[in-house]
Specification:
The structure holds two protein chains of two kinds. By secondary structure, chain A is of the alpha/beta class. Helix content of chain A is 46%, strand content 12%. Chain B is α/β, with parallel strands linked by helices. Classes of the chains: A alpha/beta, B alpha/beta. At the A-B interface, α1 and α12 of A face α2 of B.
C-alpha cells in the first residue's frame, strides 16, 4: 500500500509536467529566463551537456549551493542530476529538497552495473532509455518518469528520434502479443514480467514518457511530441551560443511549439525569425555517445 | 453535453478518461474557437505560470472571465490558482472567477506532496495533493465542500468549484459527477 501510494505521488508530479518544456539552466539568471518563458520545470546543473562535451573531465552532481540558489528564485519545480548508480549523490539531492532527480547518462557513471534503487527514495526519479527494455528496467527500479536519452549536447535530434521510434514501435508490437507470449517477451526485453504485462495491457509505458537529448528548435520539440513524447527536455538548445535575449526568444518559441505541436500554423509562427539555433555536432562516434552509458 | 478541458499544458488526459467513462463528450481547448459551445470548462492541474502565459499568447485568457458568467468552471490545483481573485507566493495574475485568495506551493516542495482523505459534505474521499496550494481567504458567498485536517481544500461558489487536490488521479469519479450536476443545474434540459 505504502509503495503504490508513493509511486502515485511520484508519477503524479510527472503528470503535472505534461505538455510542457523542461529547460537546463546553469544559474539564477537562466532559471528566471526559463520560468518567464513558460518552462514547466528547470534542470539545475553546473555545465549544460554541450559544455560537458567540449570541456571533458568527470561530470558530477552540481554544487548544492548552486541548485539551492535556483530553488529560491523560481516557483516551478527544480530538478537536478546525479550520476548513474551514485545513490549518495541522490541522498544529498533529496536532502536538499529538489523536486525530481535525473539519474543521468550526461554525468559520468558511478556504477557500470547497477542503477540506483529508486524505491529507497521519496523524491521521484527520471531515467533515460534507448529502447523499451531499458525503460521497463528503470521502471522496475522505481523510476517515476522515463525520457529518451537522445544524444545530449549535440543539438542534433536524430538520436532522440531513433530512441522514441524504437520505444513506440516496441510498445505497439507488445500490444499485439497474447498473454502466453509475454513471458518470452519479458525474457527478450530483460525486464520484469509484471511491468511487461502492465505495459502490454495499458498500451503505453506505465509512467509518463518524455523526450530529451538533442532537441534544439521549436520544430524538433513538435517532432518529438508528434512521435509520442508527452513533454520535452531542452538542454543545451536554449542557452548554448546565445545572449540572454536570444535564449529567451528561443525558450518562448519552444514552449509555444510544444503546447500546439499539432498545429502547423502555430509551428510556422514559432519557427519564424528566431535567433540562430546552436551550431551543434552532427555526428558523434559510437564510443563517445553518452546514450551508451547505463544498460 | 460537451465539457472543455483547457489543454495548453498539464494533467489533461485523466479528466478526459473519467468524463468519457461517464459517457460525456470532451473537447480539448487550445484556441479561443475551442470554447464555442462548451457547457462547462475544466482548468486542470499543471504549472499555473506556464498555463497563464500560454493562455495569453494564444488569446484564450481574455475569453475566460466572460465565459465564466455563463458556464461552470472547475479548477484543479493550478487551475484553482488561475480562477482565484488573488495569488500569493509569489503574486501573479489571475482571472477572478471565484472570490478566493490562493497561496501557491503552500505545503512545500514535492517531498511534502501527500495523499489523504478529504471530508466532503457527502462523505470521505481519497485525494492526492501535489505541490498543492492552500485556499487562504475566501468570501462569504463561497461554500466549503471539503476539508483535510480542518483546512478547506474544496470550495464552491455558485456554478463554479475549485479543488486543491487531484480527483482525476484516483479511480473514483465522484468529483466529476459533482461537476456534471453543476452543469445540469446551470443548463436545465441538457
Amino acid at each position: 500500500m505504502s509503495d503504490s501510494r508513493q509511486v502515485n505521488l511520484k508519477t503524479g508530479l510527472a503528470e503535472m509536467l505534461k505538455g510542457g518544456v523542461i529547460m537546463d539552466v546553469m544559474n539564477v539568471e537562466q532559471a528566471k529566463i526559463a520560468e518567464a518563458a513558460g518552462a514547466v520545470a528547470v534542470m539545475a546543473l553546473e555545465r549544460i551537456p554541450s559544455l560537458i562535451r567540449s570541456q571533458g573531465g568527470v561530470a558530477r552532481m552540481s554544487d548544492p549551493k548552486m541548485i539551492s540558489d535556483i530553488m529560491q528564485v523560481v516557483s516551478i519545480p527544480v530538478m537536478a542530476k546525479c550520476r548513474i548508480g551514485h545513490f549518495a549523490e541522490a541522498q544529498i539531492l533529496q536532502q536538499l529538497g529538489v523536486d525530481f532527480i535525473d539519474e543521468s547518462e550526461v554525468l559520468t557513471p558511478a556504477d557500470e552495473a547497477n542503477h540506483i534503487n529508486k524505491f529507497d527514495f521519496k523524491v521521484p526519479f527520471v531515467c533515460g532509455c534507448t529502447n523499451l527494455g531499458e525503460a521497463l528496467r528503470r521502471i522496475g527500479e522505481g523510476a517515476a518518469l522515463i525520457r529518451t536519452k537522445g544524444e545530449a549536447g549535440t543539438g542534433n535530434v536524430v538520436e532522440a528520434v531513433r530512441h522514441m521510434r524504437q520505444l513506440m514501435t516496441e510498445i505497439r508490437r507488445l500490444k499485439t502479443l497474447d498473454s502466453t507470449e509475454l513471458f518470452a517477451e519479458a525474457k527478450r526485453l530483460q525486464a520484469p514480467l509484471e511491468i511487461v504485462q502492465l505495459t502490454a495491457k495499458l498500451g503505453r509505458l506505465p509512467v509518463p514518457n518524455f523526450a530529451a537529448g538533442g532537441v534544439a528548435t521549436p520544430a524538433d520539440a513538435a517532432l518529438m511530441m508528434q512521435l509520442g513524447a508527452e513533454t520535452v527536455f531542452i538542454g543545451s538548445g536554449v542557452f548554448q551560443d546565445a545572449t540572454a535575449k536570444e535564449a529567451e526568444a528561443r525558450a518562448r518559441a519552444v514552449v509555444k511549439a510544444t503546447a500546439q505541436f499539432n498545429n502547423p500554423a502555430i509551428l510556422l509562427e514559432a519557427s519564424t525569425g528566431l535567433p540562430k539555433a546552436m551550431t551543434g555536432v552532427e555526428a558523434v562516434a559510437p564510443e563517445n555517445r553518452l546514450a551508451g552509458r547505463g544498460w | 453535453m460537451v465539457i472543455g478541458i483547457l489543454a495548453l499544458q498539464g494533467c489533461v488526459e485523466p479528466h478526459a478518461e473519467h468524463l468519457r467513462s461517464l459517457g460525456i463528450s470532451v473537447r480539448y481547448v487550445r484556441l479561443p474557437s475551442d470554447l464555442d459551445g462548451i457547457d462547462g470548462l475544466i482548468l486542470p492541474g499543471g504549472e499555473s505560470t506556464t498555463m497563464l502565459k500560454l493562455a495569453r499568447v494564444f488569446g484564450v485568457w481574455e475569453k475566460l472571465l466572460p465565459l465564466s458568467k455563463q458556464i461552470p468552471f472547475w479548477g484543479i490545483c493550478a487551475g484553482s490558482i488561475l480562477m482565484a481573485t488573488q495569488v500569493e507566493n509569489p503574486e501573479q495574475e489571475s482571472l477572478g472567477v471565484i472570490d478566493l485568495t490562493v497561496r501557491r506551493n503552500a505545503y512545500g516542495r514535492q517531498l511534502e506532496s501527500f495523499q489523504g482523505n478529504v471530508d466532503t459534505d457527502t462523505g470521505p474521499e481519497a485525494a492526492v495533493f501535489i505541490r498543492a496550494p492552500k485556499f487562504t481567504k475566501f468570501g462569504s458567498t463561497v461554500k466549503v465542500a471539503g476539508r483535510v485536517n480542518g483546512e478547506a481544500v474544496f470550495l464552491e461558489e455558485g456554478r463554479h468549484m475549485v479543488t486543491a487536490f487531484h480527483p482525476e488521479m484516483t479511480d473514483s469519479n465522484w468529483c466529476h459527477q459533482r461537476f456534471l450536476a453543476k452543469i445540469s443545474a446551470n443548463t436545465p434540459g441538457l
